[in-house]
Write a structure and sequence with these properties.
There is one protein chain. With 215 residues, the protein is mainly beta. It folds into 2 domains: 14-102, Beta Barrel (Thrombin, subunit H); 128-202, Thrombin, subunit H (Beta Barrel), CATH 2.40.10. The chain is built from 1 helix and 11 strands, in the order E-E-E-E-E-E-E-E-E-H-E-E. It has one helix spanning 159-166; strands at 4-5, 14-22, 26-38, 41-44, 56-60, 75-84, 98-102, 128-133, 150-157, 183-184, 201-202. The chain has a 6-stranded antiparallel β-barrel. Strands 1, 8, 9, 10 and 11 form a 5-stranded antiparallel beta sheet that branches. Strand 2 and strand 3 (26-38) form a beta hairpin. The chain is globular. Residues 8-215 form the Peptidase S1 domain. It comes from Photinus pyralis (Common eastern firefly).
């Protein structure tokens, strides 16, 4: 993702999810982004969990991945349980959701907070929302992962409009948008990228924009 750097205090619900790898000692390898929806529960993408038997750790409150000298310290927690959506399909990425249950709750702070969950009947069409992440700045091998957390504004696209546009691509005229998907973006030169998987797409709660409240 190549766009605006995030203000340190602006996106306290965003998490980095790491996995532990033996090479030859324990080393944190960045895997995906995620969202804190409860002090002890993290929401991410199921495709970010290729092996439930591996050890995973989350990091809350990270901003600059290259320094520990930040205004507020990050918090690390081990993942004790992983719940994959029962209808998840790896090939098509239908129902690409996973919940990570932490071994202990994180402490809510200036840089660590939960994101609200919308009502299932919430209408989001045309609402300007935001994606965040440390993903690559361009697609392909030339792309570089970001050091500072980035954000990009993406409008929600109405489902029928999205499906009609996707049918004009190589997906073909019979493509049907699965109910588990949501569409956002469509603007030239603005998108998420490799490394942003699992990261949140959050929308301001109407009437509470000045309170920095998102779902």
């Amino acid at each position: 993702m190549r766009h605006n750097s995030v203000n340190f205090h602006g996106w306290s619900h965003y998490f980095a999810k790491n996995r532990l790898k033996e090479i030859p000692k324990k080393l944190l390898i960045y895997q995906c982004g995620a969202s804190l929806i409860h002090p002890q529960v993290v929401l991410t993408a199921a495709h970010c969990i290729p092996d439930k038997n591996k050890m995973y750790k989350i990091r809350a409150g990270e901003w600059d991945t290259q320094t520990k000298n930040e205004l507020h310290p990050h918090q690390d927690r081990d993942v004790k349980n992983i719940l994959i959506h029962p209808h998840y399909k790896p090939g098509s990425l239908f129902y690409d959701f996973a919940l990570l249950i932490l071994d202990s709750p994180v402490d809510l702070a200036e840089n660590v907070d939960v994101v609200c969950l919308p009502d299932k009947h919430e209408i989001l069409d045309n609402l300007m929302c935001y994606a965040t992440g440390w993903g690559k700045d361009v697609f392909g091998k030339e792309g570089k992962y970001q050091v500072i957390l980035k954000k990009i504004d993406l409008p929600i696209v109405q489902r029928e409009t999205c499906q009609a546009k996707l049918r004009k691509t190589r997906l073909g005229v019979h493509f049907k948008l699965n109910e588990s998907f949501i569409c956002a973006g469509g603007q030239p030169g603005k998108d998420t990228c490799k490394g942003d998987g699992g990261s949140p797409l959050v929308c301001p709660i109407l009437g509470k924009e000045n309170e920095n409240k998102y779902f």
